[in-house]
Amino acid sequence: MRILITNDDGINAPGLDVLEAIAKDIAGPGGEVWIVAPAFEQSGVGHCISYSRPMMLAELAPRRFAAEGTPADCVLAALGDAMPGRPDLVLSGVNRGNNAAENTLYSGTIGAALEAALQSLPAIALSQYLGPDNIDAPDIFEAARVHGAGVVRRLLDAAPWDDGADYRLFYNVNFPPLPAARVQGVRPAAQGWRRDTVFSTEPTLSPSGRRFLWVKGGPQHEPTAPGTDAAVNLDGYISVTPMRADLTAHDRLADLERVFS
Q1: Hey, where are the domains in the chain?
Q2: What is the 8-class DSSP label of residue 240?
Q3: 80-86 long-range CB contacts below 8 Å, 24 or more apart?
Q4: Is pLDDT of 60 > 90?
Q5: Is 17 labelled as part of a ligand binding site?
Q6: Which of 108, 169, 183, 209 has the most CB within a 10 Å radius?
Q7: Is 8 annotated as a binding residue?
Q8: Which CATH class is domain 2-194+223-260?
Q9: Domain Survival protein SurE-like phosphatase/nucleotidase: where (predicted)?
Q10: DSSP states of 23-73
Q11: pTM for the structure as a whole
């Protein structure tokens, strides 16, 4: 199996090393793992692509490239230049921090998996929730490191992928903020919503007196509705959420037909 991996934390992020180990486990002795990741951190860029400017792509080692672009750019760079032929699977992560609930909409980790799905490739995004029980651990990615390959293998072997669909499925996996031994299992979960947890801005002055704004997030340990992603993670489970790029609110189309009939 040929696997492409990327992330939004950057080519030197420790989570990418964790993902490389997971990918090598899945690819097997005769497989190939290709890395095309952002040269610098690209957190929060979503599905952005560098449509109006070129990107530099540097080969750092065999099958390892750094791109001066976004995670979605990295997928495009791999398919269009870095890799000979297409990968069998695209993995994105392992993100330092959760990509559950509203974070999903901002995440470059998700953006890379989404771009892969738009390119008709099977894709999985993986993120490690952080909290009091793992933030100061020697290995904050332990839950993902220990359980990641098993989850990916189960998805590949048994999950639906909707091959040939216009907007094919991809999967969003979040590991709970716990040591690996305390992970309770895996739960399929819908994307949730943290109430009163939104991004905001905070002004600050530079030493030269210029005014800048920092974007800051809200509390990450507010649970979502029972059974949805962040709630499942905070209960100690790995969440697996099937996703599509189709943003249509299909449940409201009939209401809209009545409005304009």
Answers
A1: 2-194+223-260
A2: E
A3: 81/57, 82/34, 82/36, 82/57, 83/2, 83/4, 83/34, 83/36, 85/2, 86/2, 86/121
A4: yes
A5: no
A6: 108
A7: yes
A8: alpha beta
A9: 3-195
A10: HHHHH-TT-EEEEEEESS--TT-TT---TTS---EEEEETTEEEESS-HHH
A11: 0.96
